[in-house]
Amino acid sequence: MDALLLNLRERPDLLDRAAAWFHEKWGVPLEAYRESMERCLRREFPVPQWYLAMNGEKILGGLGVIENDFHDRKDLAPNVCAVYTEEACRRRGVAGALLNHACADMAAMGVSTLYLLTDHTSFYERYGWEFFCMARGDGEERPSRMYVRRWGV
What we know:
This protein is an alpha+beta fold and 153 residues long. Helix content is 25%, strand content 30%. It is built from 3 helices and 7 strands, in the order βααβββαβββ.
């Protein structure tokens, strides 16, 4: 993997580009990303946090950590959200490196457990995540898989 991993709070100048990039990938309103990222930059720890994989000034991938990723299990928090890697960069370790980077950063802030809602069935296990339960995304007919990653416990 040829990418620099960074926390958005280290590069506040990327806020507008990062918000637009996540909006383009997921279709969540741009303002929702901006608001969450602004909270991250105000150091509202431990969540929200936003992470990017960069090659020069190009965003290759990213993810966030928020309180709840729009699902019915509000007791399972905080959540990794919006995991995305540019198609041309997939299968090169970008997502795994981002996940590990976010977990290490959250651990440094005293968080020992993260959750993640997904329809993937085997991807996250490669990076130490374990299936936890089924949870229903807001407005979804069918439940999705909830994964957990714990450390230091």
